[in-house]
Every structure is written in C-alpha cells, then in structure tokens.
Amino acid sequence: MAKCKLEIRLAGSGGQGLMLAGIILAEAAILYDNRNAVNTQSYGPEARGGASQSEVIISDDEIDFPMCEQLDILLCLNQQSLDKYLDDLRKGGMLIVDSGLCADLPEGDEYKVYKIPFTALARDEVGKVFVANIVSLGAVAGLTDCVTRNSLERAVLTRVPKGTEPLNMKALAVGYREAAAARVDQPVGATKPA
Amino acid sequence: MAKCKLEIRLAGSGGQGLMLAGIILAEAAILYDNRNAVNTQSYGPEARGGASQSEVIISDDEIDFPMCEQLDILLCLNQQSLDKYLDDLRKGGMLIVDSGLCADLPEGDEYKVYKIPFTALARDEVGKVFVANIVSLGAVAGLTDCVTRNSLERAVLTRVPKGTEPLNMKALAVGYREAAAARVDQPVGATKPA
Fold first, then answer.
1. What letters, b where the CB count within 10 A reaches 16 and e where it falls short, cover A150-173?
2. Contacts of B181 in chain A (CB under 8 A)
3. Interface touch A187/B181, C-beta < 8 Å
4. Between chains, do B177 and A174 touch, taking CB under 8 Å as contact?
5. Residue of B nearest to A168 (CA)
6. Selecting from 3.10.20.90, 3.40.920.10, 3.40.640.10, 3.30.750.24, what CATH number does the domain B5-185 have?
7. Do B181 and A183 touch (CB under 8 A)?
8. pLDDT tens per residue across span A95-151
9. A134: closest CA among A11, A9, A18, A27?
10. Fewer CB atoms inside 10 A, N or C side of chain B?
C-alpha cells in the first residue's frame, strides 16, 4: 500500500530554479491539499553551478524531523547532483533525471529510473529554458501523485512572476504529459493521494 | 474557481462497458477519495447497440437529486449517443469523444471538445478492444481530475475480472497519457481536487 510519508529531493545546479520548485511543491501540499509538508534548502559554496538541492517531505502525519533521511524520490537536473546524491535514494526509489544533462546513469534495477529531457522540452516546446524547473515539477507530481494537479497549478500560479502564468501552465502540462507517457511503459503505482 | 459538484455522463452503445465504468468512477470517489457520489444507469430498449448511458455525480456536499440536470462532462463512445445527449451538456462543458467512432462533431466553441481514439487505442496498444471503457475512464479522470489516480486505480482493480489487472492498469495509463497530452495543447483548469 501507499506510504503516507514521502521524501523528495530536487537537485541540480544553482540557477535552475529548484529552490522555487521546492517551495511551490510544499505549498501545494500544505495550502491546497491540506497535508503536512516541510521544505528545506541547501546551497553549496558556489552561487551558481555545482549541486544545490531543495528537499520536500510530504506526510499525512506530523513531521518530527525536517530533513530527508532516505529519499523516495530524487530529481536530478545535472550530472553533478546525480553523482552527489544517488546514495541517499532508497532501494526501489524513483530517480528522475534530465536525460539531456545526465549521461552517466546507474545500471541495474536498484532504482526506478525515469529519463525526461526537461531542459530541452522547456526550450523547444515552451520556448524558455528557465521553466525547466516547472516542467520537472509537473513530471514529479505526475509520476508520484504526491500533490493534486489542481493544488500544484494554484501553487505555481501564486509563485511565478506576473505575466508568466500561461508559460508556466504550459510547462507544467508538458511535465505531466511526459510523466503520463512514461507510466504507460513503466508502470508505477500511485502514492498516497493528497 | 473550481466547481464542487461535477455531473458526468458516460455514453455509448450497450456492450461497451460504460455501466461498469460508471460504477468504478463512483466507487473511486466514494470509497477512496471520501467524497459523495451517485451513479445511475439507464438502458435503451436494445440490449446492445444504440445509446446507453451511466451518470455519475461527484460532490463534496450532499447530493439531493441523483440525476444529472446539466452535464459538465459528456463522454461519447459512439455517434448515436453523441447525437442523443449533446443537448444535455452545458455551454462550456467538456465533450470527450471516441474520435474513431464519432465523425459528426459540434462546430464552434460552445463546448471544449477532446477527440481520442479510445477503441483503437484499446485494440492496438493494449491488445483488447474491451478495455476501451477503462482507457476512456483514464482520460476522463486525467482531463478533469474528478478523482485521484490512486483511487481510480484501486477502484478498477477491485472491479475487473481476476487476471485482467495488468491489462486494465495499462488501459488506464494509456487514457491518462492521452489526457495529459491533450491538456498541453488545449489547457483545461483542474476541477476540484478529490
């Protein structure tokens, strides 16, 4: 059965918008799905580049300890963050990578690996590279059902700059589409619904 | 804002499995999403063929009147049911048709029309025509968020014949994929989350 607590890490280089993505995900869970969530962020010494990360824990129960202990879901938007954080992912956990930016992936079936070219999709289909974070958020939610789509849409709309709403809704929809397509070939049971 | 009551009609010919689809949808809402729902069914004089229909009302409030008054969502798996029931769909409502079986569609922008070849997908991609009802259920849920995916999966698994679970999960996933793809080009705001 579905686990009622989900530990998620969104990782990539600084400047890829994953801090904002973590805030949005947590707000979707807390404000609109009425669940418990915490969001913690950590930066490396580099302002941009490297491996920065944003953690989100979503639960129906109170969350005692606000740091991820063993990840259920790891999103990596660059190779450096994948190399750094893969060990924190539990066996059987879900690894979601930007397939255009991560070439060296784990072999075997220890993890459920989903490869989606987030940055290329953001650039080629939505027209703006900077919405790769929102495309990936749509994919994370679409693959895991960790928040409802309605809540995620509301949280995105509240947080993104005025004027960019249609762009970001399109980015989110592209992410959901990729996730839904991936689930046909590589089924994943829905996690706890929000 | 999202409406908290949703009136849905699943229509097609007898034998397309829409009675079961209605039961599954209502059970997903009631048993697993903990919302209120009613399911009513009506058959024409013909045991098979013609235009039969299954109605589902999903609401967060008590449902006083168990029949649809003005449809928010109309699914049609054949032309006959489309011709018969289109007038019951509210302006701005969502019309979802089997594009392989419905050729004569309403023109203009009175309705939001989504065309998906459910029967062809069931046959060609899942390998069994009889799961067209489950493909269409995935699309209805994916387009409207009327129930959570987790709940719908559970309801399907509970109701389908033993041994056909993987087939039906695949059918559902194909329906979700088609819906998610359609929402990129033709955005639709999520309805009330379950």
1. bbbbbbbeeebeeebeebbbbbbb
2. 177, 180-181
3. no
4. no
5. B184
6. 3.40.920.10
7. no
8. 999 999 999 999 999 999 999 999 999 999 999 999 999 999 999 999 999 999 999
9. A18
10. N
Torsion angle of the four alpha carbons B124, B126, B127, B128, in this order, in degrees rounded to the nearest 10: -110
Question: Any bridge partners for residue B41, and if so which?
Answer: B54
* Domain A5-117+144-159 top-level CATH class: alpha beta
How many Cα atoms are found within 13 Å in the side-chain-facing hemisphere of A147?
Answer: 35
Residue B146 tokens read as: 């009327």
Local confidence band at B52 (pLDDT 50, 70, 90 cut-offs): confident
Which residues of chain A from 18 to 77 reach within 8 Å of chain B, CB to CB?
32-33
* pLDDT tens sequence across B75-88: 999 999 999 999 99
Residue that the structure tokens 């999709």 belong to: A121
pLDDT tens-digit readout, B30-47: 999 989 999 988 766 555
Between the alpha carbon of residue B4 and those of residues A160, A176, B35, B47, B190, the distances in Å are 26, 23, 10, 35, 12
What's the angle, vertex CA A125, arms to CA B2 and CA A98, rounded to 5? 95
**pLDDT at residue B119 greater than cutoff 90:** yes
- Residue A194: pLDDT over 50: no
- The ipTM value here is 0.79
Q: Which of B158, B176, B188, B192 to mutate to test the interface with A (most CBs of A within 10 A)?
A: B176
Chain A residue numbers touching B192 (CB-CB < 8 A):
150
Q: What is the mean pLDDT of chain A?
A: 90
Confidence grade of residue A45 (pLDDT, cut at 50, 70, 90) = low
Q: How far is A106 from chain B (nearest CA, A)?
A: 26
Minimum distance, in Å, between the CA of residue B33 and any CA atom of chain A: 8
d(CA A74, CA A51): 13
pTM for this entry: 0.86
Q: How far apart are CA A153 and CA A77, in angstroms?
A: 21
Question: What is the rounded CA–CA span in Å between residue B33 and residue B26?
Answer: 10
Kindly report the CA angle at A87 between A82 and A92, in degrees rounded to 5? 100
Token pair 């079986």: residue? B101
Compute the nearest-CA separation of B52 from chain A (Å). Answer: 30
